Amino acid sequence: MEVPVSAGPSTNGALRHVLGHLLTPLLMCVGMGLAYLGAFHAPAPHDLRVDVVGSGPSAQVLAQTLQDKGAGALDVRTVADRETAVASLREQGSFGAYIPGQKPELLVASGSSDTSAMAVEKVFTKVAAAQDAPLKVTDVAPVGSGDPTGQGIFFLLVALSIGSYASVAVIGGAGAVLPMRIRALLAAAMSLVVSLIGTLFAGPAFHLVDQGLGGVWAMSWLYAAGILLVGVGLHTFLRRWTTLGVMVLFVMLNFTSSGGIYRPELQPGFFGALHAFWNGAGFVEGVRSHVYFGGHALGGHVLVLALWFLVGAALVVTAGAVEARRSGAEKAAGKAEEKAGAAEESEEEMEEAVAV
Questions:
Q1: Residue 248 exposed, middle or buried by CB count within 10 Å (0-12, 13-18, 19+)
Q2: pLDDT value of position 56
Q3: Which backbone phi and psi does 94 adopt, to 5 degrees?
Q4: Helical residues (DSSP H) of 101-212, grouped into ranges
Q5: What number of H helices and E strands is found in the chain?
Q6: Strands 48-53, 74-79: pairing kind
Q7: pLDDT at 244
Q8: What's the distance, Cα to Cα, between the start and end of the chain in Å?
Q9: How far apart are alpha carbons 285 and 262 in whole angstroms?
């Protein structure tokens, strides 16, 4: 009669293995909660730049009153005329300009950020109401006809990001046995495909932008290529933690600091600081600049994307060198084991010969 073999030790080992891997989704849950709730749960303006149009005492008094009552929410200045205010809005130097009078007018640029424009409108609607005058709102840099909320660029960013970091997981996992140069080529190819899909969404599919589709594609490719190269390079060092690492970089910190939903002036300072150099912000602000503001300050945003791309390329090169050293060390160890085994066999043969 056969005695059943206990599966206890095997089950315990498998359970420990599963529990160790379940740590990753728990960390993702905590990280996503901290990032998204920290960035979006209570948007409030701070140092939101607005202009009051006029050079007389009344304009100065109104500007100072708004500055004082805002308690840090607004950064108010006066400008001489409407043309100056419009120029500032079109260069993203301010987010609203109020022209006082019997028929007050508020100038905004929703292309810069629809939520910032709404925050400015809320402030100056109260100012006009205190004067018993209806407020006329003029948008000097409106969003595209297919993107009435102004947040379509952000959701394009989400699509590009998911396509890119999901490709990292596949290339790093299923393609781990391939040489680094082939994985790098796969990353380049996938970045091209992902960027073309994003451009299809932005243009023919949903008409998020009315012009400059070629520039949108170029920035989409540069953004996707940066994520893929960084992710493929990191996989050599992070291994099974790569998915978590890429999510931290390109979801938790990236989406929340991009300015796609709320600009830094409506968020806690940490995300505003990231906005200055993170790749998602470079993409969102670059597309806005290219499509809505005639390319003003576009070079700085493209530079951010290019630097992330170069960091990714450097990581891939470094990872390739590390893998080559590991492979050389493994081969050397294998040869040493073979030599040791051959020596043992030779010694055994000699002992047998002596015994005979």
A1: middle
A2: 87
A3: -150, 170
A4: 114-130, 152-173, 180-200
A5: 12, 5
A6: parallel
A7: 92
A8: 45
A9: 12
Residue 181 identity:
R
Whether residue 106 contacts residue 98, with contact meaning beta carbons closer than 8 Å, is answered with: yes
Task: Enter the tokens of residue 151.
Answer: 């947040």
Describe the crossing of helices 152-173 and 279-292 by its angle, rounded to 10 degrees.
140
Give, in order, the Cα–Cα distances in Å from 309 to each of 149, 211, 225, 320: 30, 25, 6, 17
Q: Determine the pLDDT at residue 105.
A: 96
Angle at 259 between CA 256 and CA 263, to 5 degrees: 110
Strands (E), the chain: 48-53, 74-79, 97-99, 105-108, 136-139
Tokens of 353: 């010969």
Residue 349's pLDDT is 54
Of 114, 113, 232, 92, the closest CA to residue 165 belongs to 232
Distance CA 176, CA 258 (A): 31
Amino acid at 63: A
82 CB-side CA count, 13 A: 9
How many other C-beta atoms are found inside a 10 Å radius of the C-beta of residue 85? 25
Give the sheet arrangement for strand 74-79, strand by strand: 74-79, 48-53, 97-99, 105-108, 136-139
Low-confidence residues of the chain: pLDDT under 70: 1-9, 334-336, 338-356
What is the chain's length? Answer: 356
Q: Which two tokens stand for residue 268?
A: 């806690």
Amino acid identity for residue 224 in this structure: A
CB-based burial label for 254 (10 Å; 0-12, 13-18, 19+): buried
pTM of the model: 0.89
* Residue 119: other Cβ atoms inside 10 A: 24
Cα–Cα distances in angstroms (integers) from residue 258 to residues 31, 105, 188, in the given order: 17, 30, 24
Q: What is the pLDDT of residue 186?
A: 97
Tell me the one-letter amino acid at 36: Y
**Amino acid at site 274:** L
Transcribe 200-214 into DSSP letters: HIIIIIT---SS-HH
Distance between CA atoms of residues 167 and 67, nearest Å: 49
Q: How many CA atoms lie within 13 A of 159 on its CB side?
A: 18
